[in-house]
């Protein structure tokens, strides 16, 4: 299983993806996702210029050693770009290991701990009627959990609202970042009203989630969490910025609304205090940003010790390789909670062919050896990279704000 080639393909079948392809001497191909929304080329260069040359000649079977070689060996630690690169290598090596064994990756992780992976869909609307139509669509399709977002009245634009009822949205849609204006007071008045409306319309027979995208201060979250308690959310996501874990002590002392954090985190150390002080309920890590399958398993094991469950990041700005890798982990770990799922629009399906399937609100990664995703490099070449940026957020007076 000697590695003979490692190459990076940046393509844009609907949106930009960075794919790492690792080939071994017997011609087996392993694939990893290195996409970092809005900073794709930085990871591509980190891999091409600094990591791929180090992989040639290494034994693809030595996953943990390769992880440590790239992490400890670089001297410079953590950070989005470097960790996305290490994650992609790790994911590709697990894919190769599964292919060599002739087994789906989840079998190598201890086998299925459940029959399927419960997912949540993204419902959204420009107003409450649109939101109702969107939620209905997910419930009709069999989803057992739905994230609800709606445009905040009085704001020109609210992040994360799809133009279509199926919630599909692509926020990285401009050649330079668009500027959005945020108003916390309007949001804090609207969000409880919006989520109460959802429970009034649809009842409590499904799990309801909501994402706040780091925009509130800790005391604002404390108030929102209290206001939302009657709606019994599955989780309130990223309510405040995650860099200061002690902020969550304040939130915790005021509300029982469950909290999910970590889609922008890169390592177990980012999560350590939040988990060991039981300040969060769900770990939101991305397999392709938090060190691949190897490191995600470490984070999830730590979380399990403290009764914290998993809720892996899974938007369409991570490629189908990431979603598949997350699903193998989800199926195998004891403390699985829920998985985010946004179906990939065409032409992503021309470039990536996946074996995971959806039924009755659950995904299953399938039983193809490895991760179960084939990457078509010729099809990828037909969709070249286009510079695309996420928006930024300002307050009405022009100050930069978290978004
Ligand atoms: C989510 C996220 C995404 C992020 C996106 C940024 O909960 O799915 O908040 O929508 O904004 O991944 O690239
Ligand atoms: Mg989020």
Q: Identify the CATH class of the largest domain.
A: Alpha Beta
Averaged pLDDT, please?
A: 97
Q: What general outline do the C-alpha atoms trace?
A: globular
CATH superfamily of the largest domain: Enolase-like C-terminal domain
- Molecules bound to protein: D-gluconic acid, magnesium ion
Question: How is the main sheet built?
Answer: 10 strands, mixed
Q: CATH topology of the largest domain, anyone?
A: TIM Barrel
Number of helices: 13
Tally the structural domains: 2
Beta-strand portion reads: 15-25%
Q: What is the CATH architecture term of the largest domain? A: Alpha-Beta Barrel
Which stretches are low in confidence, meaning pLDDT under 50 for 5 or more residues running? none
User: How far is it from the N-terminal to the C-terminal residue, by CA?
Assistant: 44 Å
Short description:
The chain is α/β, with parallel strands linked by helices and 403 residues long. The protein has 13 helices and 18 strands.
Give the arrangement of secondary structure elements:
Layout: E1 3-11, E2 17-24, E3 29-33, H1 40-55, H2 63-73, H3 80-101, H4 105-108, E4 117-125, H5 128-140, E5 145-150, E6 179-182, H6 184-202, E7 207-211, H7 218-228, E8 235-237, H8 247-252, E9 259-261, H9 268-276, E10 282-283, H10 292-305, E11 309-310, H11 320-332, E12 339-340, H12 348-351, E13 352-354, E14 357-359, E15 362-364, E16 373-375, H13 377-381, E17 392-395, E18 400-401
Parallel strand pairs: 4-5, 4-12, 5-7, 6-17, 7-8, 8-9, 9-10, 10-11
Antiparallel strand pairs: 1-2, 2-3, 4-15, 13-16, 14-15, 17-18
Helix pairs in contact: 1-3, 2-3, 3-10, 5-6, 6-7, 9-10
The chain binds D-gluconic acid (GCO) and magnesium ion (MG).
Domain Mandelate racemase/muconate lactonizing enzyme C-terminal: 128-258
Organism: Pseudolysinimonas kribbensis
Pfam family, one: MR_MLE_C
